[in-house]
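>> received
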Amino acid sequence: MARAERQWRNLKEWKWFGFGHTDKTPGDAELAFFCPTCPQPGVNLPEDWKTDEAQWKYQRSFAMDGNFVAVHQQQLRTTQDVWIKDGEGYMTRRAPYYQHLRCTAEIYEVHDVLLYPFRSLIYSFYQPCTCNEHRAHLDRAKAYKGCDCSGIGAFACLRHGCFCPGSIVNFQKGEQQRNMDYGHCKMLQHTHTEECPGVISCYDVHCQYHKKLHARVAKGQYLSFRPGLRLVPAIGLFHVHGHQNVCYARYAPRFIPGAALADGEVMERLFSVLNGISTVTRTMTLAHRSETLDSHMGDSNFKKMIDMGKVYRFPFIFDSDCVKSPLCAKSGRKFVRVLKLPRKTIFSCRRLQSQNKLKFGQRLFNTQRKNGEMEILRPWMFTIWTCQEVCAVSLVVTSLSKNIPVIPQAEIRANLMAAEQGSNSGVGITSWLVDGMSIQETQYVNYFELEKEIECS
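>> returned
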């Protein structure tokens, strides 16, 4: 059954990608989907895109990380393994990858405080570490007992989370730079970056990985970058706070032009899904494991490809009454950001944020629901509910009508404390009232949660 399943899956992929009824054999990364939204010349860009002055729009962005859940146990008879696919999907081709590993030495890092008298000798084999001691670098030489693959190094587009074809590599020990270097080069090779003005690359330990990257690529026999390629290193917003303070200013995506609002942690979300099958592939043969991981990565990219039309259609649904949409201070900024409204509209919403009620979203939702267009609205229903919850939690019992001004909760608590101290009526009344407000906040949240369940059902 396992053999039949592998052959059936391979035949389906040949048919999907146009090789089923031809004599042509698929090459590297030709049996893999990729992101249809990232700007790619010859795929989704106009012919005159190079004449556009705003070249930052055509900058590419990627994320990379290691996954140590996808380990593989050593098999007894590896010579009998049959490779139906070898590099045609998301995993790299084996022969050139292992040749690269054999002729490339890993350079480890050491802190300046270690073996100070022998610094010049040590630096000929090691490079100094300029950041904190991260596990990704400390465990690079760590061996995994009974495993011939200690994990995988994966790459994906930063904004949409589509796995990059032909770039997924196997680890032999820890997360070594030579493994990631090979996948990095293959990522740029198979994702149409030949003419892009620049590439943002997000990695958890980029402050150490990027220092000698170009030197390693120049020395590598199987590594190559496009001449003149501008690489911009970045660190995800979750991991960057574990670095030194200087790394936050240098590598946080919030400070990099063209990175938009990407958090740089898309690989963690992809791995949370891929780990479900990674635990099953541990005892498969290497060939079967590679094909299974390829299949699930392709399924992830395929689902994103067919759902992007629905997701990116709703931000352009616009109502002229949105200028009057009465949003509170917090939910208003979130709502207009999701709808991508003009700057003038955003300012109008902020000026009118305390004069009306949140009706625009509900009115548009009810209109489209009557017209039977629920599929269009389903992706942004959560946005309206989020605005309602933030409004309820932030404004407590205050009304948003035009006659009653909005009073922040902190000011209410301060006024209650001042009144209590002036009345000499005892201690604890303010805490009792604050607890009551917290209970009412919880009731608001539960109310909207119940509404969400009713609507979804």
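>> The first helix runs from residue 2 to 16.
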